[in-house]
Each structure stands twice: as structure tokens, then as C-alpha cells.
Amino acid sequence: MACVDFVRVERARQALPDDATVRTLADTLKALGDPTRLQIVIALATEGVGELCVCDLAALVGVSESAVSHSLRTLRHLRLVRYRKTGKIAYYALDDVHVGRLVTEGLQHVEEAP
Amino acid sequence: MACVDFVRVERARQALPDDATVRTLADTLKALGDPTRLQIVIALATEGVGELCVCDLAALVGVSESAVSHSLRTLRHLRLVRYRKTGKIAYYALDDVHVGRLVTEGLQHVEEAP
DNA sequence: CCAACGTCTGAGCAGTCGTTCAGGCATCTG
DNA sequence: CAGATGCCTGAACGACTGCTCAGACGTTGG
Cβ contacts (< 8 Å) between B111 and chain A: which residues? Predict the structure, then answer.
């Protein structure tokens, strides 16, 4: 306990966002930390794809439409995706550009050679 | 099931990374999806901070040193942080630049006005 | 109007996660 | 050497998560 560098700790503490922001960001990243939801987001981030309906996403990711719907609800509540409904079909798309960039940055990290 | 747009689905499927990459990226994002680990990474990403030891991080985040150590192990195994040991003190830092940029991009998304 | 369709939802279960607790290993100090 | 310090680790417990299942809702086509 005695080895704490108070100067640096204080500097880091002031740079930390408030708790609410940290928690929201954590929730967002946690949502993207599930393979099903991550594939959904990557698919929607693909250039030339644009919108996909629940059926499309279920077929693409390879899970039930119910599971996709649950996943989409999570992504919706975090404002990672938005949807447009025409008749009985719901078309989903990414909500804002940061999401796509975030995933891209993540992929660059993962694909770096060890 | 009949509403699937095979053209778009196929286009999206070919853009999807292989399963191993998706899983690794998901694991990485899930790791950042925990408030404790996220605060550690944000702290280490703060300009002018550089390195912090386990004590510092425990004091900063407000959890036990054991919990920090467990969290750091997870981050280490995913190559999100690296450490340097001098004597009995272990100094942790971010492993590569993408991690900091990823968190920054995430913060920009969260701090956007609704 | 009725049946089929696309989607959404709540409950429940198996699996996972983060923390605490107790203890172990090096390293430094007196 | 003996104790203290900084850090790491495995086990275990409560909390949470993502899926399946069954059913409900609104829309569309015959």
C-alpha cells in the first residue's frame, strides 16, 4: 500500500470520466463482447450492406430469430443500432459512425502479429 | 424465413472475419466491458501517466489489490497491457496504440448527445 | 375474416463472471 | 536470517448472461 505514487494516481483520477460514463461505455463494450452481437454489428458495418432484417441476420449469424431479436434489443437500447419498420419487416442499421470505427480499431488490434 | 435477401447476406458473410478472429475480438471487447478493467485501461491511456503499479491501480479504481491482479491477468492474456518488473514492483502500461484509440472512439460514442 | 408471416417478449435454465478469501512466491530491509 | 512488502494464484460463492421455448402482437394476402 505504501508504494502508491500519489502524483500519478491523482493525475489519472482527474482524467477518468465520471462513473456514469464509465458504466455506459462498459455496457456498450460488453454488448459488443458477445460473438452474436459482434457479428451483427460487423455485418451492419460492412460497406455496401446497409440494412438487414431480422431474418437476414439470423441466417447470417446462424442462430434463431428469437436470439437475434434479443440481441438486437440490447444493441438498440445502447443506441448501437437503429431500425426502420416497413410493414412486418424491420430493417436494422448502425446508429452512428463511431461504432463502425470502434470495431475496425478492435480488428486492427486483434489482427496484429504477435 | 422467406424474406432473406441472399445477395446482401452473402455479401455480408464474405466480409465477416473468420470465427477465431471474431471470438478473439469479442473476448477483447468483453474484457473492456467490465468497469474495473475499463478504468484500468482508461487510466493507462491517459496522457502523462504512462506506467502504474498494482498498488496505484487498486487505489485509483477503488478495489482490492487481488481484484486488480485478477483483472490485469485477463488484460495481459489478451495483450491489452504489458508489464515490466523491477524488484517487487510490477509496472503496467498499455500494450499497443489501438487499445487507447478504441477506448477513445467508444467514449466519443457514449458522450454524443441523444 | 382468417391464416401465415415477421418480429418481439417474458420466463427459465445452464453456463460464465467478478469478487473475496486464504495462502504462496520473490524480493527487499533490518 | 526473519519479517514485511508487492504481487500472484486457486477455490468458491453470488450475480449475471445468452440461449431456448412458448406465446403474443401487428401486418399482409387470399
Answer: 21
Give the span between the Cα atoms of A106 and A110, in whole angstroms. 6
| B27 pLDDT above the threshold of 90 | yes
Tally of structural domains, chain A: 1
Residue B8 lies in a domain: no
Give this prediction's pTM. Answer: 0.93
Taking CB atoms and an 8 Å limit, are B29 and A106 in contact across chains? yes
CA angle (A50 as vertex; A47, A51 as ends), nearest 5: 150
Domain that holds residue B29: 22-110
For residue B48, what is the domain's CATH number? 1.10.10.10
* Residue A66 identity: S
Looking at beta carbons, which residues of chain A come within 8 Å of B52?
5, 8-9, 12
pLDDT for B64-92, tens place per residue? 999 999 999 999 999 999 999 999 999 99
